[in-house]
Design brief:
about 120 residues; mainly alpha; flat; transmembrane; membrane; Transmembrane protein 18
């Protein structure tokens, strides 16, 4: 019985070590992504503000079913047209942004640089 408990304790210890390592890696990736984005760009601040206002409107109007249905349909329309809007914004990014975020390659490079800078500060 004691040998079985030791095996179980060893398995649990290995599992928690793997989880801690995986969570640390995920956290480092998130921090790298967070630092790769310039959060002071006006369009990004407006986008975040829009989402906060939308959340507040949803919470405040939670008892008005008809309004909630209209809001839901508008949100669905926004999701439907997101691809078209993204294409249009990708073509005209210089008019409202300093750096492009519409290029996946550019974003990955900035993300990795920020992640390496973050890791360097903790080592």
């Amino acid at each position: 019985m004691g040998e079985h408990m030791d095996q179980m304790a060893d398995l649990v210890e290995k599992l928690t070590a793997e989880l801690r390592f995986g969570l640390r890696l995920a956290f480092d990736n998130f921090i790298g992504f967070f630092h790769a984005i310039d959060w002071t760009e006006p369009w990004l601040i407006c986008l975040m503000s829009f989402h906060v206002v939308l959340l507040l409107v949803v919470i405040i109007s939670r008892k008005n079913i008809n309004f909630q249905m209209c809001l839901f349909l508008l949100a669905l329309a926004g999701v439907y047209f997101a691809g078209t809007l993204n294409s249009s914004l990708r073509d005209n990014w210089k008019s409202f942004m300093v750096n492009t975020l519409f290029s996946l390659c550019y974003l990955i490079v900035r993300w990795k640089r920020a992640e390496l800078r973050h890791r360097k500060t903790f080592t």
